[in-house]
Fold this sequence. Notes:
Structural class: mainly beta
CATH class: Mainly Beta
CATH superfamily: Cupredoxins -  blue copper proteins
Distance between the termini: 112 Å
Helix content: 10-25%
Number of helices: 2
Number of domains: 1
Number of strands: 18
CATH topology: Immunoglobulin-like
Radius of gyration: 31 Å
Largest sheet: 5 strands, mixed
Amino acid sequence: xxxxxxxxxxxxxxxxxxxxxxxxxxxxxxxxxxxxxxxxxxxxxxxxxxxxxxxxxxxxxxxxxxxxxxxxxxxxxxxxxxxxxxxxxxxxxxxxxxxxxxxxxxxxxxxxxxxxxxxxxxxxxxxxxxxxxxxxxxxxxxxxxxxxxxxxxxxxxxxxxxxxxxxxxxxxxxxxxxxxxxxxxxxxxxxxxxxxxxxxxxxxxxxxxxxxxxxxxxxxxxxxxxxxxxxxxxxxxxxxxxxxxxxxxxxxxxxxxxxx
Length: 260
């Protein structure tokens, strides 16, 4: 073999040695329709062995304002749904000055914890030309189901600041419909644009620790992890009250709010 031929063979061999490793390490191109893997949401779960609770009562001190009579005469179907006068429910004070329809919730103390939304819907009814209940709460991501039980058309118009605003007319016999709220917000007013006396208020919270006081002014928050919390109590005519509460492991705290 001549020296010239041998040199050519060695040159070709060197080029192949440089080319082949580069080809063997090439990565397959990523498909355009591929999406990055979804990150699993990690929810906080309370240890039942250390969980505590808060319960309490809401009272009103002072002279109670006179209740306002609601005039439903513009819609005879609403009048026929009731016997006698109907009164505004902006402030309902019962026996022993107990206040109903107060929204109570943990305002601070749960930062950094994420809670799985309940699967069950929260239901808002339109019956007798009222929203029932007048005050309600749900968790972010939980569905609100709206039902019209009246033989006439209503309009449901939430007026949020942090969430998406919408309004929806619901005729007699229309099926229930569902909506979700993604951002915490206390409170969202809801009105009916057809019947101006119909009002409701919705508290949207990113955890399950909220309640609405009953006719005895009582509430309870259970399955709380130990810690220090700011508890807020909202009433549509009287505003907001707050208290700081510390829950020890397995402990229970009883609180009392008094609106004046």
